[in-house]
Amino acid sequence: MKKKINSSGIVYSTDPGFQMPSNEDESIETLIPAEQKLKIKIETKHRAGKTVTLIEGFIGSSDDKEALVKQLKNHCGTGGASKDGEMLVQGDHREKIVLWLIKQGYKNTKKI
Which of 83, 85, 84, 98 minimizes the C-alpha distance to 42? Predict the structure, then answer.
C-alpha cells in the first residue's frame, strides 16, 4: 500500500490561527510605461566574459516582462532572456534599448 505524501511540507501546527498557504500565484499588476522606472546597464559577471545588457526595475507580471524582452530582442536583432527577475539582451545595446524604450513611453528610463 502506497502512502500519500503531503506536498505542502507542513506536518502539524499547534497555532489555532494557522491557515494553509495558498498555491495561487498573486498576479502583480503591471504599471503603465510612464510609471516604470527602468535602469539599463551592461554586465559581464558570471557570464563567461560575455557582455549582456541588463534591464532592471520592471514592475509587472511575468507575461508582460516576457513580451517586453521579446520586443527588445527583435529590435536589437539578438538573443536574450527573462529569468530570475532579470531581463537580459545579449551584447551591449544600451543606447538602442534606451531610445526604443523612451519611444514606447517608458519616460523614466536611464542608462547606468
Answer: 98
Q: Which domains does the chain have, with CATH numbers?
A: 40-111 (3.30.780.10)
**Single pTM value for the model:** 0.73
User: Which amino acid is located at 38 in the chain?
Assistant: L
Q: Parallel, antiparallel, or unpaired: how do β-strands 108-111 and 86-90 relate? A: unpaired
Residue 55 phi, psi dihedral angles, 5° rounding: -110, 120
Grouping H, G, I as helix, E, B as strand and the rest as coil, residue 37 is strand
Could you tell me the end-to-end alpha-carbon distance of the chain, in angstroms, rounded to an integer? 61
Query: CA torsion 80→63→75→95, rounded to 10°?
Result: -80
Contacts 24+ apart (CB under 8 A), 96-100: 97/40, 97/53, 97/55, 97/72, 98/40, 100/72, 100/75
Condensed to tens digits (0 to 9), the pLDDT of residues 13-27 reads: 788 887 776 655 556
CA–CA gap between residue 84 and residue 61 (Å, rounded):
13
